[in-house]
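Researcher: I need the complex structure. Ligand is zinc ion. Inputs:
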Amino acid sequence: MLVGESMSEYAHSIEVEPNVHLIRGLNKARFPEANSLLIDDEILTLVDAGSDMGQVSRTLKDLGHKMEDIERLILTHFHVDHKHHSEEIHEISGCEVICHPLSDQGVETFAGMAEYYGITNHPVYETWKVMVKGWIPPVYSDYTVTGHYKDMETISCGEVDLIAIHLPGHTLDHTCFGINGVETIFLVDIDLTGFGPWYGNKVSDIRVFQDSIKKVMKLEPKMGISSHLLDPVTDGLSTRLRAFLNTFDEREAKILKNISEGYDTLEKLTRLPTIYPRIPDEVFLVFEEFMVRKHLEILVEDAKIIQDGCHYRTERR
Ligand SMILES: [Zn+2]
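Model: Output:
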């Protein structure tokens, strides 16, 4: 039996660096679960609150702590699967809760978050609202933010330093964390999953996301920790980052091909679908739609397609 192994088929946490523990989400950390990091140091620090509370409790217990001992909670961005248990943990421990200044709106209220999603006036809004509550029961409640970190700020936990690296695109506030430098980076939702990059919000941006991935590649990290993979990636990390970045171009090529085959409106392209391999629920169509629309805007801008009202065509007819 592995150290820390519980009822699930994998250990609830692993130490990725001295005093830095990766708390793995349930269900292989797939959405709506996400990993968290626990820094067992002078200031007991949790990064993100997306992993199941049982996983957090078990990790704390292994290290001789309890939930009440958490002193600081750092949020990487406003997404539901990352802020999830944040308010509950804040209420139990009285910990400070810090985030990027741009996270405030999305973290603090449900209405603010929905605005950031860009879904408020969408026909699926009510259905989405109910669905999110099913995934993330506390989501309608207000969340406390007690302070902020700045881009490139070093947050000292004692022995361990966390370096906030603002890498937007996935969302406007998306922030990764270097651990004692930049050789090991918590990549958060530059998540290296097979799905590829996700940018289905009003506050997501393809070009900014591409730049952020390129910035990570320039830092040449040796270890990348994803919010949605059970293990840190070391072998072939640069190749994995490159493949993740290439997904944008692959999707663009697919959209061009689909347009040339007569899927010439946003609606038709969304219905295919183009980006999601399959739509798990009708509600997800909205994110497919937002992502495809962002590609279409860029394709029009780059003169790779021509827009005629709500119809698109490739230059060659
Ligand atoms: Zn996210």
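Model: Summary of the prediction. The longest helix spans residues 237-260.
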